[in-house]
Design goal:
By secondary structure, the protein is α/β, with parallel strands linked by helices. About 40% of the residues lie in helices and about 15% in strands. It has one domain: Spore Coat Polysaccharide Biosynthesis Protein SpsA, Chain A, CATH 3.90.550.10. Helix 2 links the parallel strand 2 and strand 3.
């Protein structure tokens, strides 16, 4: 807890058995709630998560990274979280920064905080493939231009959110795939939420989840589509449910019994 705010860490997981324990062990004592959603892994991720004392939910099928996050945030809000930090259990990002990120929101300064791999020049040192680094910089410049903000990167998976933001954004309008992350930032900008960044080292290694070249290209096109639809909606050219106040939110039903309570 920070400034009277209950902190939840959510971990969207798929085949994270090898790195989960190290991730959980490095979570700070300020974390009040630990939640893992297993997207129908083929290993023993869920079994290990329960042994580690983490609230564990298991999807009955592999729904995708974006859908996994929806379950994560729904369960965190239901558990009474005021601030929710998403930590990938593959140990690509260091969990030791959770208090700093949560504190930036608990202070009332920001509504969303991104752990940036670009600030501090840590991306390439951490082993990010060069083609991903170049694509990151180009896509980020493109989005900064069209979204009218100035972020160092839009593609990190280490993020913290206020409860208000999670309850306001129409997250159920977003993709079930990896571009969910990018769509969420664009939504936050559209709805006027304040976004901050913190420098975060990253590690690329065999056990760390990382999408392949084909999926990276698909993600890149998804980012471009998100950006252009953002601009078209803002200019009134088209109406995009993802960026509208009437879009489906987490408190509304989306699917039934896709997450099993322990």
């Amino acid at each position: 807890m920070i400034n009277g705010k209950r902190i939840a860490v959510v971990m969207p997981a798929y085949n994270a058995e090898k790195t989960l324990e190290q991730t959980v062990q490095e979570l700070s004592d300020v974390v009040d709630i630990k939640i893992l959603v297993d997207d129908s892994s083929k290993d023993k991720t869920a079994e290990l998560s329960r042994r580690l004392g983490v609230q564990t939910y298991v999807h009955d099928a592999n729904y995708g990274y974006g859908r996994n996050q929806q379950t994560c945030y729904r369960e965190a809000l239901a558990a009474g979280a005021d601030i929710v930090v998403m930590v990938h259990p593959d140990y690509q990002y260091t969990p030791t920064l959770v208090p700093a990120m949560a504190g930036m929101i608990a202070s009332g300064v920001y509504d969303m905080v991104l752990g940036s791999r670009i600030l501090g020049a840590g991306a390439l040192k951490g082993g990010m493939p060069f083609y991903k680094y170049v694509a990151n910089r180009l896509l980020t410049a493109f989005q900064n231009l069209f979204l009218g903000v100035k972020l160092s990167e839009y593609h990190t998976g280490f993020r913290a959110f206020s409860r208000e933001l999670l309850e306001t954004l129409p997250l159920l309008e977003n993709s079930d795939d990896f571009v969910f992350d990018n769509q969420m930032i664009a939504q936050a900008v559209m709805f006027g939420f304040r976004i901050g960044e913190i420098s975060c080292p990253t590690k690329y290694f065999e056990e760390a989840s990382s999408i392949n070249f084909k999926r990276s290209v698909e993600y890149g096109f998804g980012v471009l589509a998100t950006t252009l639809s953002f601009s078209a909606h803002k200019m009134g050219i088209i109406r995009v449910a993802r960026f509208g106040k009437s879009g489906r939110k987490l408190k509304q039903e989306y699917y039934s019994e896709s997450a099993q309570r322990p």
